[in-house]
Amino acid sequence: MHEYERKVLEFLSRNGMATMEELEEAIAMHKDSLMWAIESLSARKEISVKKEERYAATLSDEANGYLKGFPEEKLIHEIGQKGKIPASEIKNSIGITWAKRNGWISISNGVVTLTDAGKKQLSSGRYPQKDALKIIGESKNMAAGDVKPISAEISELSKRGLVTLKQHNLISEISITKEGKGALEKGEKAGLGQLSREVIKSRKWESFGLQQYDIKAPSEKAYISRLHPLHEITDTIRKAWVEMGFREVSGPIIESAFWNFDALFSPQDHPTREMQDTFFLSNPSTLKIKDMEALDSVKKMHVKGWRERWSEEAAGRAILRTHNTSVSARWIRNVAKTQEKEMPVKLFSTGSVFRNESVDYKHMAELHQYDGIIIGDKLTFANLIDTLKRFYAKIGLENVKIMPSYFPFTEPSLQALYYDEEHGDTIELTGGGIIRKEITKAMGLDKDKTVLAWGGGIDRLLLNKRVFGMDSLLSLYKNNIGWLRNRGEIKI
Questions:
Q1: Does 18 share its domain with 80?
Q2: Are 349 and 326 in contact (CB under 8 A)?
Q3: Residue 491 placed within a domain
């Protein structure tokens, strides 16, 4: 009998039964060692262990903010005060989504009003999801009896990424059995579990003997060094492109509107340039365009193509880049200037991009993209489709669908999509196409050269259950060391 086991049996023999906490305090043993002793004694039926089903609840940062009121509650309260609100004036997009789903509001001719259900909800002042959230927040370790009455609400909160609930069994009572009492009465000496200088010096081991080393005994968990999942999947994507013969390039995060929009034939009055989509900087507010030849060519492209006045001042505005295609635009120009002879030229980039998005499980203000181009002779749309399919096959994604699409700087254009069964939603993987001849001409590329281009989201791959199965992109920014240590593996 191990010395740890004897300590447990002796305490239970004196006290009859005990909780796990009482044993920890009385025996002053490390929890892992105590658990090993309990499991070993239980396997030999020398103790009886009762377990209680418990649930460990974790609230997201977003959920903590909702304790004071859900977005949909705040929205119907505002509508209740004003009677009706133009949809264009409502910035609370999450509130609209859930109020609509709950049947609290109706939207007609761009005006939002309360339904009868919404008026009833407003007058009641009670919201089951908020009530459940408060219960969870006040009791992080919940019994099964606490969970059952609010199980439907917990399911909804989990889908929204607000609550994580994990089941575990908690030892509630430990008692000694007749077999355990018999083992104590035998007077079997407790073997020594470890050698020390004192034990060797006193030769104590000769009297007590040594316990056989149990390699299956529980031990304190060791946490190996791991990459953040976003870094890991970016490295995987980078490796896949390199193996396909691509060269990695990069460009600035703080970019001019010229390279981000104008060089890609995006008109200066295009909605994507508005404040709701683009982050414009105040310091610096402008960036100088040093390539005057490209500046002049792009100006002529816009005046001829869009029949509009073109402003160099607007092109010089400093922004946070909205896509990695700004890097591709710079490198198309670079290839044209250096007149590279070896074709095709195959380039890719990865990095952060920024858009003034409404935050939800698949949208963030900062996201990460990979972008690629192939410059060469006699390239076709079929070459682009084949490249994308080979890339996704390489990282283990199946059933990727290619569909027609539209982008201002490519013609024809496509999208690569997959259906995410867990969220019941179609997720865009990549947009791409053949760069318009107006752009390649403005960049100075030979007219017989074709440019295939594409750009895809890295973050959204982590939502794919086949790849990683993350519930929400918000998890990437929680800085939760426990989640990082215990996260699953990326399966590509």
A1: no
A2: no
A3: no
Give a yes or no: residue 469 inside a domain. Answer: yes
Query: Is pLDDT of 414 > 90?
Result: yes
Report the C-alpha dihedral over residues 426, 428, 433, 435, rounded to 10 degrees. Answer: 140
pLDDT digits (tens, 9 = 90+) for 40-99: 888 888 888 888 777 777 888 888 888 888 989 998 998 998 888 888 888 777 888 888
- Distance from C-alpha of 143 to C-alpha of 56, rounded to nearest angstrom: 9
Q: Give me the domain span that covers residue 436.
A: 229-486
Residue 250: count other Cβ atoms within 10 Å of its Cβ.
12
Tokens 């050269």 identify what position?
Answer: 449
| Residue/partner pairs of 377-386 with CB below 8 Å, 24 or more apart | 377/343, 377/344, 377/448, 377/449, 377/450, 378/450, 379/344, 379/434, 379/450, 379/451, 379/452, 380/450, 381/412, 381/414, 381/433, 381/434, 383/452, 384/414, 384/432, 384/433, 384/434, 384/452, 384/454, 385/414
Q: Is the pLDDT of residue 190 over 60?
A: no
Phi-psi category of residue 364: left, alpha or beta, with phi > 0 → left and psi -120 to 50 → alpha: beta
356 and 430 part of one domain: yes
Query: Tokens 């017989």 appear where?
Result: 448
Q: Give the Cα separation of 363 and 355 in Å (integer).
A: 9
**Are 182 and 94 within one domain?**
no
